[in-house]
Amino acid sequence: MFKSSKLIISVLGASVLFSGVSLADTFEVTITNATAGQVITPPLAFTHNSNVSLFKLGQAAPSFLIPLAEDGDISGFTGADSLADISALYMGTGGITPGSSQTFSIDTTSDHPLITVAAMFASSNDAFISVYDQQLDFGFASKTYPATVYDAGSERNSEDCQYIPGPPCGNGGVHDTTGAEGFVHVHNGIHGISSLNVQTYSWKNPGAVITIKHMQ
Fold first, then answer.
1. Which residues are bridge partners to 95 per DSSP?
2. Could you tell me the pLDDT band of residue 122, with boundaries at 50, 70 and 90?
3. Where are any strands of DSSP class E within 109-177?
4. Whole-angstrom Cα distance, residue 216 to residue 168?
5. Residues 207 and 129 sit within 8 Å (Cβ to Cβ)
6. How far apart are the first and last CA of the chain?
7. What is the pLDDT of residues 7-42, one digit of tens each?
8. Phi, psi at residue 34, to the nearest 5°?
């Protein structure tokens, strides 16, 4: 995984020279929102090697994951592609509404054969979808992956509008951390305990479908 919270400082500030002469391959990524009521925030994707990972199940969410999971904020990853362990970075600028898709291209090299894609479920405290540390297929094939909905464990699932950035609330940047689980785990959905209607905002896994195709 990203080795420590100090690494994000290196990501933002370092200029790292890449070694080797590997040629870049281009992959097309399509994220389809598989829910009836959740908006997926602008997605993050990066190609990388096995030295980095966005998170580990059962462990505390790294500091760089928490803004993504709680507010859909991916700005902290700006410049991550300057790190030697990351080949390329994509930062989306638009959300993905229920039933719609977003497609983008991302490059990598054979010594960075993994891809991670992640984005927040906007109408939640700290739910996010991800396909992570996925081995890319360098054959000219298209593969589809179910994206599980995870809970960052950094905020209590109060379902209270005063802590939720997406509809029907619009309150980003305010977090209900008391009683948070403290580790990343598979999310158990919306239960209608406060401001969120279950029929509108809950889901069953997968929360999204991600198709990755090797283009050249």
1. none
2. very high
3. 114-120, 127-135, 142-151
4. 42
5. yes
6. 28
7. 332 333 333 333 445 679 999 999 999 999 999 999
8. -100, 10
The pLDDT score that the predictor gives to residue 5 is 37
Which residue carries 């960075």 as its tokens?
112
Q: Which amino acid is at 55?
A: F
Contacts of 61 (CB under 8 A, 6+ apart): 55, 69, 152, 153, 154, 183, 184
How far is residue 126's CA from residue 59's CA, in Å, rounded to a whole number? Answer: 15
Alpha-carbon dihedral 117, 123, 127, 128, rounded to 10 degrees: 0
pLDDT digits (tens, 9 = 90+) for 123-146: 999 999 999 999 999 987 899 999
Task: Give the separation between CA 132 and CA 34, rounded to whole angstroms.
Answer: 18
Q: What's the pLDDT tens digit per position in 81-109? A: 999 999 999 999 999 999 999 999 999 99
Pairing of strands 127-135, 44-48: unpaired
Domains of the chain: 26-214 (2.60.40.2130)
